[in-house]
What we know:
By secondary structure, the chain is an all-alpha fold. The protein folds into two domains: 19-78, lambda repressor-like DNA-binding domains (434 Repressor (Amino-terminal Domain), Orthogonal Bundle); 89-347 and 402-406, Alpha Horseshoe (Serine Threonine Protein Phosphatase 5, Tetratricopeptide repeat). It has 21 helices and no strands. The chain has helices spanning 19-29, 34-41, 45-53, 61-71, 75-78, 93-103, 121-136, 140-155, 162-182, 186-199, 204-220, 224-238, 248-267, 271-288, 301-314, 318-328, 339-355, 359-372, 374-378, 381-393, 398-406. Helix 9 packs antiparallel against helix 10, helix 10 runs antiparallel to helix 11 (204-220) and helix 13 (248-267) runs antiparallel to helix 14. Pfam families: HTH_31 (PF13560). It comes from Micromonospora yangpuensis. This is Helix-turn-helix domain-containing protein.
Amino acid sequence: MTGHERFSSDGNPQGELPIGRRVARWRVRRRMSQQVFADRLGKSKSWVDKVERGVRALDRMSVIHEVAGVLRIDSAVLLGGDTPARSAAVPLVADVDDARAALTRYAVFAPDGVDRPAPPVAEVGRQVRHAWLTYQHAGYPQVLRLLPRLLDVTRRLPADDPARRSALRVQAYRIAASSLVKLGDVEGAWLAANRAVAMAGDDPVLAATAVVSLGEVLRAAGRGRLAVATTLAAAHRIAPAVPGQGPPEALAVGGSLLLQAALAAAGRSDPRGVAELVGQATEIAVRLGDGDDHHQLAFGPTVVALARVAAAVELGEPAEAVRGHEQVTREPHWQRLPPEHRAAYLLDMARAYLDLGDLAGAGRMLVEADRTAPTEVRCRPVGRTLLARIARDGPAVAGVTRLAMLIGLTP
């Protein structure tokens, strides 16, 4: 299944038959009437008819296994394939290890690369832009495969343009940090984020962009207090003398740092701190507006609204999160945000619905996240954990059951 595949309202890729229609086709192939099929299942003929017409949802894995057994087929066939398409969901252990190995290489210890020509700066810039775009579309397997070479070429950049060299190096390490933290390698992500800060040199705004990534890593590591202190220190360092009057690029970075601090404060159960920090970020966002992607941060009013919802989830206020969600997803800029950002946010919303005891709502959020960026659900530990829990505790929307089968997380 590709990241470009679109889904119908029941969670199935467009062009595929709904599960009820597949049941009907296989029943006919096995030359069973609805009554005979119902008798073998221990169900009523009316139940079978409603399932086949799509009036009744077939969304419990135990029932799907039972139906498949009577039809003498694999459950995966009913869910949309001849065999479970699990390859897209295999944890990327080897690729993560390769990326970590690339992070621990130092040019001074690599004499075999001394005589290699320095790569053209323009070509390296193109590679970095490609890696960012791939990350923003949640192409984590592809990014991990790109990282070893990307880190190598940025290390070998010529010294005749130090500012450009620092900028490209910082971006490469930020991509590494963001990708690794997504996939649960907090130690590797911490190393990458620290390298990004170190590579920024004396450029405070460039260093602050790296601290945005560092703040995310510190939060993932459970170091909320340190995340707040680090991100606020960077935000204060680049704050303009007149509030809101600095260059847009610097304002966007400062606002992003405030949001990282707010999310860290939420993780520490500090609602007052969250309100203050989100309020400050809102003032900056209103001045900047939506639409620009300064330093690949997408900072603006919509991103601030998403962070406010995510903070409510962390603070244990799921009802408030749902109210905010219903409002922010109606904003025009919501659909223009990178797929990675939207899908990660939808996983937060799945948690909110779970906290409310609404498994169907959580399932809808998960299916929507998978439609937006499949690897957020299928490759990220948090996505797989949510999927396993929702599929186990169902009933849920049919798409959740299908996803659980596709990636081998059947109860």
